Amino acid sequence: MKRILIALALVSGLMSAKAQPQPINLIPVPAEYSVRSGPEGRCKSSICSKELACLKEKVRISEKALLRRLGGRNLSDWQLKSAYWIELGKKCVKIVAADEEGVFYARQTLKMMASLDSTPPCCTILDWPRFRYRGLMLDESRHFQGKDFVKKQLEMMALLKMNRFHFHLVDNPGWRVQIDAYPRLTKLTAWRPQAYFWDWEKNEIGGPFVEEGTPGAYGGYYTKQDVADILSFADERHIEVIPEIEMPGHNYETRAAYPELACQLPNGGKDPWELCPGKESTFEFLEKVLLEVFEMFPSQYIHIGGDEARKNNWKICPDCQARMQAEGLKSAEELQSYTIKRMERFAHEHGKRIIGWDEILQGGLAPDATVMSWHGTEAGLQAVREGHDVIFTPTHYYYLDYHQDPAQFRPVGRLVSLEKVYSFEPMAESIPEADAHHVLGVQGNLWTEHVQEAWHAEMMLYPRAFAIAETGWSQAERKNWPDFERRASVLSAVARKWGYTVYPPSPQQ
Ligand SMILES: [Zn+2]
Q1: Which residues are catalytic?
Q2: Mean pLDDT calculated for residue range 251-268
Q3: What's the gap in Å between 248 CA and the centre of ligand 1?
Q4: Which of 127, 159, 187 marks a domain boundary?
Q5: Domain residues for 108?
Q6: Crossing angle of helices 454-461/464-473, nearest 10°?
Q7: Per-residue confidence (pLDDT) for residue 57, from 0 to 100
Q8: Residue 371 CA to chain centroid, in angstroms?
Q9: What's the number of CA atoms in the CB half-sphere (13 Å) around residue 39?
Q10: Of 421, 418, 399, 406, whose CA–CA distance to 485 is shortest?
Q11: How far is the CA of 138 from the centre of ligand 1 (A)?
Q12: Quick one: which of 359, 397, 383, 445 has its CA closest to 135?
């Protein structure tokens, strides 16, 4: 009797395994899908080998037709724009979307399916994003990678349905974008004698810069033509590029190029990081730089940094003190807030909105500013309570310079494993439903103090960017760590074949 039961259990197990639809390997996992089971439900590999390009494609752009397929599901306008429906048959694929953007995401889904599986399952997919902001940040000040590297990462971002590239272009160790009004920024402070950041910056004091063309100089910058090339590449992939121009801290390089922008103190000042917000010439500089940046980058947002200003010089600088008195400012924090609010007004006059790191909350937040919450999540939650938009990029989950494994190359910071990144939930329970729209989304930050080589930068990005992409796009109830881990390993293998370095790197890499 026992034997018969075991045999029956085996048969029923086999039958249910056969009846189970094949797993779908996509990252991010779609909102809804159904897969035709059995070998008869698979596309023929000869048809699908070239990104499904041999399949007959029928595309319909119609909001009405998409809404019919969505049934009673209630999507916001921005979600509707990105949403798509696919029916993948053996010889034909049908796409329905309300907008070109939805068609683009449908094609990215098909491209990924064909890349991950030589015989993708015939299936129906209905999909839309959870958050509108799904970003990655690259720090190119500390180590400069250049245009081809950026395009390669934009390509992967598009495949992952990420749509914001935060371009950290300027910081203490190098200015990386051409500004015609201030040529010393790229003729001098885009170049340094030491390549590796920590050989240049010792004891938290920056090292020297050298003139462009100096033999052995390390660095580089983007010309206006380079920026235009990157933007057109990103635009074709529905990615908005948001430049960051740091102020008022993290400006060692600006001061090296234009020393008159620093506080003038008898002893030269203790902190070499800040601009002097007491002087009108500082605002003239910032405005002229921003005007050129606005002309280059058509993004709705400009990131103005705002983080880690030490403010010690401001407390003793005669110009800063005079400004504080004239404006009725009681503290250095209020002087920082004055600076950010003034620059926000300038940005508004030119049709832009500002994003800043969460220090911009100090001393009173500029009225329309969006906060990038990096000190954990509390600052972001405070900003939401105050009615501001927030992008979550918490250090202990989304700082991609932190190590994935203590044994990896140049490990720094805390352990931020793939599972840890995947576990972050941006919509804290304490956020009332009425305020949920203020949570714009998520972003992974690749700071590059320790990351000099392109392969190292990619190894820090992948596979962890896969997890951020899924948290940004996929519906919360679709997330599942064991299944994601399996899919991430499939995508990692394919990405390695495409020439990306994915952690852990294969022995050949
Ligand atoms: Zn000053």
Answers
A1: 171, 250, 308
A2: 90
A3: 11
A4: 127
A5: 21-127
A6: 40
A7: 86
A8: 14
A9: 1
A10: 418
A11: 30
A12: 445
